Amino acid sequence: SNILQLEAQSNGDADVPFALQWARRSHLYGFTNLTEWGLGLPLGILAWAGFLWMAWRIFKGEFRHALLWGWTAIFFVWQSSAFNPTMRYFLPIYPLLCLMAGWLVIWLWDEGRKKKEKRWSFVFPLSSILIGTTVLALTFAWAYAFIQIYTRPVTRVAATRWIYQNVPAAINLRIQTSDGSVYQQPLPFPTGGIIQSDQPYDVPFTANATGALNQIYFPHIAAKGDAASQTFSVSLTPQSGLAPGQNLAASSLTSDFVPAGDPRGKEFTLQLDHTVMIQKGQVYLLHITTTAAVTMVGAAPINESDWDDGLPLRLGPEGYDGYGGLYQGGLNLQIYFDDNADKLTRFVSTLSQGDYIFMSSNRQWASVTRIPERYPLTTAYYRALVGCPPDKDVIWCYNVATPGM
Questions:
Q1: Per-residue pLDDT at 11
Q2: No. of helices (H) and no. of strands (E), the chain
Q3: Measured between alpha carbons, how far is 376 from 91 in angstroms, rounded to an integer?
Q4: What is the C-alpha separation between 363 and 367, in angstroms, rounded?
Q5: Nearest 5°: phi and psi at 195?
Q6: Could you tell me the strand order of the sheet in which 249-255 lies?
Q7: What is the pLDDT of residues 359-402, one digit of tens each?
Q8: What ranges make up the beta strands (E) of 160-229?
Q9: Is residue 275 within 8 Å of 212, Cβ to Cβ?
């Protein structure tokens, strides 16, 4: 039924990614998520124990529980049977399940007071105290651990910062900081831009780190036009501070800049003639000149789909915009497109042009591979990408995969 409903929803392509993630989900999906993550195992187990015991008490004639129990049961079954049993849709019964957990603890206490045989009467109230305090303490600890997720950077933001520090843009300042690490500050260059001999390129920037700058890295510089020996030069001047406009350092190299193997050009690292002490927050100007026309580009990231957050994100404080001149844009696998010859061509072309594949979530590999009969090409791609053995499920492989596997 899930597959039939998926096909009905996917007649409009806009709903395909939404529908795929729910294909072949067990009807226990909502129960598992509510118990393990929504309530946490200690409270979840006690809540369902209270739910079952309340059902037994109703069966024994205590009908005063019928409204509370019936509403919870009906709502739970209804949402669990839905096509997308997302945990948030169960929120209306969270308080009721907590009430049942508390009711079971109180029931144990009251039952002990009713016992006429004093020898064993302490077992029930003792159990009530132990279970109640243990579950309360563990649920507090679980909730505290859970909210710690939100005290650290969002994973996409953390990944974005890593990208700007490790994936080369068109222009990259290598700043040696006081702790011995290298801070890479990427600078933009217009996509498709050309530096002419009579049109130098100036890029003002605010330093995002304090340290020693002695080299500038260019991953791809290529000549535009006839191959001939030419000179590529850079100079650095402060735009603010004690001596604005004063030339701090310079460097140049001579090459024909003819691409060798990569049409985007070869990589070059320019060593400055003077080490410049860069101050964070100060504005500088990088001046680039050439004796003949050249173009520069950064790395080429590949994103998976328009349906997910593409990486890298914009970082406001640092002023970084990944696709605003830092990296090559436009490479997208469009995972949710139908598997056909055109998609195979897109895969081959995109993977041939790209340097990195950015996967910002499991939205793609954990959804399309649920229906390999509809996405055989994409499933084979994901299997090959991570080296998933034929006898293993693709989703299982990605869940256990670690760097180096």
A1: 42
A2: 12, 11
A3: 37
A4: 6
A5: -95, 115
A6: 201-206, 283-290, 230-238, 249-255
A7: 999 999 999 999 999 999 999 999 999 999 999 999 999 999 98
A8: 171-176, 182-187, 201-206, 211-223
A9: yes
Q: Give the tokens for residue 117.
A: 């045989």
Place of tokens 């180096």: 404
Q: State how far the Cα of 203 lies from the Cα of 315, in Å rounded to an integer.
A: 18
- In angstroms, what is the C-alpha Rg of the chain? 31
Sign of CA dihedral 402, 145, 138, 38: negative
How confident is residue 4, by pLDDT bands cut at 50, 70 and 90? Answer: very low
Position 133: which residue type? Answer: T
C-alpha span between 135 and 343 (Å, rounded): 52
> What is the helix (H) or strand (E) element at residue 253, kind and residue range?
strand 249-255
- Give the end-to-end CA distance of the chain in Å, rounded to a whole number: 36
Joined together, the tokens standing for residue 47 give 């809540």
CA atoms within 13 A on the CB side of 261: 2
H-run or E-run covering 299: none
Average pLDDT over residues 37-49: 95
Q: What is the per-residue pLDDT across 245-283, written as a single tens digit (0 to 9) for each?
A: 688 999 999 999 998 889 999 999 999 999 999 999 999
Provide the pLDDT for residue 116: 63
Contact between 88 and 30 (Cβ < 8 Å): no
Say if pTM beats, i.e. exceeds, 0.90. Answer: no
Q: How far is CA 317 from CA 67, 179, 251, 314, 320, in A?
A: 54, 22, 29, 9, 8
Token match 């279970």: residue? 131
- Alpha-carbon torsion, ordered 365, 367, 370, 371, to 10 deg: -100
The total number of residues written for the chain in this structure? 405
Alpha-carbon distances, residue 113 vs 103, 125, 133, 145, 264 (angstroms): 15, 8, 19, 37, 83
The answer to whether residues 224 and 294 touch, using CB atoms and an 8 Å cutoff, is yes
Per-residue model confidence (pLDDT) at position 17 = 66
Bridge partners (DSSP) of residue 228 are none
Residue 107 tokens read as 């029931």
Is the torsion defined by CA of 26, 28, 29, 30 positive or negative?
positive
Cβ–Cβ < 8 Å for 355, 300: yes
Cis peptide before 219 (omega within 30 of 0): no
The amino acid present at 308, given as its one-letter code, is D
